[in-house]
Amino acid sequence: MTQPPIPTGIELHKRTKMLELVYSDNERYSLSCEYLRVYSPSAEVRGHGPGQEVLQTGKINIAIDAIHPVGSYALQLVFSDGHDSGIFSWDYLYQLCTNEKDWWQDYLDRLAAAGANRDPDIQVVRIGN
């Protein structure tokens, strides 16, 4: 079994609300705090099994307040809405990096299908069918 890629550099850009991850081959990824929050690996977001996922809405303004190492295998991200229960393993972080485009579009599609919004101050109202 191969080891998951481990970032050689991690930098939180608070002003732009982006987490930058650099890997040994100089691959660089910038992930938004919102993306990380809506794809948190916590049970609160993922549920306790398939089909139990909870769509996260209104997270456009979310920030990361703190980052804590978890052993030598993961990070705990503390978000500005108080969410801190997701443990982001190195493997999961790399998946988030390499699948960002597809996963973000999937999230936007699920929001639209639910009639929900990224902005907590905007209510989406459907009229008719």
Describe the structure.
26% of the residues lie in helices and 24% in strands. Strands 1-2-3 form a 3-stranded antiparallel sheet. A 3-stranded antiparallel sheet has the order 4-5-6. The chain has one domain: NE0471 N-terminal domain-like (2-Layer Sandwich), CATH 3.30.2020. The model has no long low-confidence stretch (mean pLDDT 92). Strand 4 and strand 5 form a beta hairpin. By secondary structure, the protein is of the alpha+beta class. It is built from 4 helices and 6 strands.
The name CATH uses for the topology is NE0471 N-terminal domain-like
Which CATH architecture would you pick? 2-Layer Sandwich
In percent, how much strand structure appears in the residues?
15-25%
Number of helices: 4
Largest sheet: 3 strands, antiparallel
In angstroms, what is the radius of gyration?
15 Å
| Name of the level-1 CATH class | Alpha Beta
What's the total number of strands? 6
- Please trace the helix and strand order, writing H or E for each element: EEEHHEEEHH
| Model regions low in confidence, pLDDT < 50 over at least 5 residues | none
Separation of the first and last Cα atoms = 50 Å
Strand arrangement within the widest β-sheet reads 1-2-3
- Number of discrete domains: 1
Structural class: alpha+beta
